[in-house]
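A further point concerns the way the authors explain their paired sequence and structure data. An entry of this sort, consisting of the sequence and the corresponding C-alpha cells, reads as follows:
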Amino acid sequence: MKRVDDFRLRFGKREIVPIMIGGMGVDISTAELALEAARLGGIGHISDAMLPTVTDRLYDTDFVKTKLKQYKYNLENSDKTDIKFDLGHIAESTRLHIGKTMEAKRGEGMVFLNCMEKLTMNAPRETLKVRLHEALSAGIDGITLAAGLHLGSFTLMEDHPRFRDAKLGIIVSSLRALQLFLRKNIKTNRLPDYIVVEGPLAGGHLGFGMDWAEYDLRTIVNEIHQYLRDEKIDIPVIPAGGIFTGSDATAFLEEGAAAVQVATRFTVTTECGLPADVLQEYFRASENDIEVNGVSPTGYPMRMLKNSPAIGSGIRPGCESYGYILDANGKCSYIDSYNREVALHPDEKKISVMDKTCLCTHMRNFKLWTCGHYTYKLKDTSHKLADGSYQPLSAEHVFKDYQFSTDNKVALPPQK
C-alpha cells in the first residue's frame, strides 16, 4: 500500500517531500511552522498578511504606532481616503520577517510566502509590488499568489532579477480562473511553477460563492489535469482543502497530483501562531460549530468558528492603525456597516455589527477563528487531558503522520 513518502514533488532536479503547509494569516503560519516543514523536507508557508503589525510583535518595530500617530486626526472621520501606508515601512517589514526566516532555514525543503492580493491597502498596485519585490530580494524560495486572481502580479515582478529564479505559484478554485491567469500573463513568457487547486472545504476565504457545497475538489482537480494535458502544459498541480489524512493525500498523488497542501491539522501544533486558549477552541469544535458566512469585508465567503469573538463585534474601524482592506478609493464595507449601526443606535455605548467585521483588528488580535471544514475532527488527533483540554501536537508529528500513515489512520502523539 502506497503512502505519501513514496512520491516526490520535483522542481527541476530538486526533489521535495510532497507536503505543503498552507499560508495562514495573520502570523498563524509562523516562521517556526514553515521552518519545520522545510527541515523535514517539505514546503512551509509564511503569510504576508499585515506584516508591519507582525514585525511589531516579533521584532519590536513600531510601524503601527507610527502610522496611528500620523493619522490620529482622522479617527472620527468616516472618510479614509487620506490613509496611506508608508511604502518604505512595507518594504522594511517584509524584508525583516522574510530575511530572518530564511537565515534560520535548515534542511532540504523550501519556505514560500503566501501573498494575499485582497490586502489592497488603499493602493493595491503600489503596495503589492513592494511586497512581492521585497520578498524576492529577501531570498524567499517561492511565492504563492493567493486571495484573488492576481492577473497582474507576474507583470509586477517581471523586472526583478529573481523573477525566473524563485518558484512562483497561484491558487485557483476553478479551471476558468486558471485559464484567465494564463491568458493574462502570456506576455511575460513565464508559466507558474505550480498550481494550488483549493477546494470548497478549505479554511478562511473561499474562492466560491455561498453555493460552495455544490463543488468538489476532486472534480475541479481532474478538470484542470485534463486541460493541462490537452494544452500540453506541464505544471505541477497541488490539491488543497479537506485533505485530512495521509491516505487522503496519497489518493490525490496516485491520481497525478504533484503534492498536497494541508493546513487544518497544523493549527493545533505548538509551532502554530494561535494562542493556547484559541488552539483549544479548535480542538473542542463540533461540526455544528463551523460555518461559512459573509462577514468578511473582502466580499469572499469565509469559513470560521461560529463563536469567534469577531462576529457581531461593533468596534470602531481601526484603519488609522491598520487599514489593510481599504480598497483603491479608501473604502471598506465594514465602515459602512459600522456607521449604519451607529446611526440606528445613537445612544448605545456598545453596538453590534452582524453583517461585516473589522477584519484587520480582529485577525491581528486572534479574535476571528477561521478554520477548515474538518476542524471538528481535530479532537480525534490527540489526547484529552484530565482538565478537559487537549494535548497540543508538534508540527513534526503531524507532518510525519501525513508522510507515512496508511489505511486512513491518524497517529496519536505520545501521551504526556
